[in-house]
Amino acid sequence: MQITIQNITPNFFTPASSEVWSKNFELLPNSKYLIKAVSGSGKSSFFNFLYGLNNRYSGSIIFEKTTIASFSENDWTSLRREKISIVFQGLRLFPELTALENIQLKNTLTNHKSETEILAMLAQLDVDQLAHKKAETLSYGQQQRVAIVRALCQPFKILLLDEPFSHIDQTQITNAVNLVSQEVEQNKATLIIASLGDTYNINYTKILLL
Ligand SMILES: Nc1ncnc2c1ncn2[C@@H]1O[C@H](COP(=O)(O)OP(=O)(O)OP(=O)(O)O)[C@@H](O)[C@H]1O
């Protein structure tokens, strides 16, 4: 899904000059982007704008030909079920549910993956043995890997990952990047990763400094 950004600026803080704020640019389907940000420069705010959780900005964000400011809550619900997926910086797993229950809660909305496929993805990130453990008992790096798998358990045209690998070791980052890349290509999606510095060895269409 093509995303057109037209001159957006947050209303609740004054951002420093960057390649995102107050600029016009497009994010293309089948492409990978890195938002390389300084802490506090607004990358989580930018993701919240794209995910429809915050509309306190001037300018326009356009999905294909429609400005997202015109979407109703119902529009957002169906977009978040079938078109746009996210790993939040804070993950937002349900602590009392197991890793697998967290994933299935999302997956059952569209029955996107079978349980066998979900367990295979968890195995690819070396957390399959934790499938039946409560999320709150997992380390942050293990929770990150569960949240990544959860985000892949729906159809999507846009995948937003906010510092998704910050607590994961290099071997597992490589495995996670491979899994994410494979799913992004299958979905012909736009991948947008935010990071404070690491580039994760991904061949980006463009790196934007924020
Ligand atoms: N609800 C809010 N009300 C007022 N100011 C806010 C709000 N949310 C964020 N801010 C401010 O907006 C700026 C950007 O915050 P944001 O969380 O988007 O940054 P970030 O780049 O993701 O930071 P980090 O990398 O440290 O997580 C900060 O100055 C923050 O204090």
UniProtKB/TrEMBL annotation:
Domain ABC transporter residues, every copy: 3-209
Domain of life: Bacteria
Presence of keyword Lipoprotein: yes
Keywords of this entry: ATP-binding, Lipoprotein, Nucleotide-binding, Translocase
PROSITE patterns the UniProt entry points to: ABC_TRANSPORTER_1, ABC_TRANSPORTER_2
A molecular-function term among this protein's GO annotations: ATP binding
PANTHER family linked: ABC TRANSPORTER ATP-BINDING PROTEIN MG467-RELATED (PTHR42798:SF2), LIPOPROTEIN-RELEASING SYSTEM ATP-BINDING PROTEIN LOLD (PTHR42798)
Name of this chain's protein: ABC-type lipoprotein export system, ATPase component
